[in-house]
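Tokens for chain A. Residues wanted.
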């Protein structure tokens, strides 16, 4: 599957006329396609809009060519996406501390589905914080709910 994804992303970038220095696939918890490029400003776009679009197009191509099992991957350019996800995690941790301190629910700003997934995973094992998605469409966000730790 790695080779198929690598080929697909290379073809996508070539046909779109996008220059890259290297493309590699990293498997693990998630499959990441790590792209390095001197033209990262255009690949990422304002607030990551171009990168999100590239990911959407690449997933659609993978679905069409290889079926549903190929859609679980993410393209990251020059570490931009991981840097953004770390910001999301830091913000969520800070707001979770607020929820613990004041013992009440805290709402996070609207997020993409992937960002919400990252936050849900971050608190999956937390004994004091439960996460729930709320809202609709582009206003969908996470609520960090304080729960009293159970003593056994």
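Reply:
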């Amino acid at each position: 599957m790695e080779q198929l994804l690598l080929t697909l992303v290379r073809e996508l970038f070539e046909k779109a006329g996008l220059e890259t220095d290297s493309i590699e696939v990293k498997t693990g918890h998630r499959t990441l396609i790590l792209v390095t490029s001197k033209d990262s400003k255009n690949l990422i776009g304002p607030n990551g809009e171009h990168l999100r679009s590239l990911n959407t197009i690449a997933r659609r191509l993978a679905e069409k060519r290889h079926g549903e099992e190929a859609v679980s991957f993410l393209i990251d350019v020059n570490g931009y996406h991981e840097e953004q996800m770390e910001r999301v995690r830091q913000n969520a941790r800070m707001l979770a501390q607020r929820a613990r301190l004041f013992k009440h629910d805290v709402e996070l700003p609207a997020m993409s589905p992937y960002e919400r997934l990252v936050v849900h995973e971050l608190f999956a094992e937390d004994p004091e914080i439960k996460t729930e998605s709320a809202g609709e469409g582009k206003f969908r966000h996470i609520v960090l709910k304080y729960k009293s730790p159970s003593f056994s």
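The helical segments are 2-15, 40-44, 49-66, 80-102, 113-122. DSSP finds five helices and six strands in the chain.
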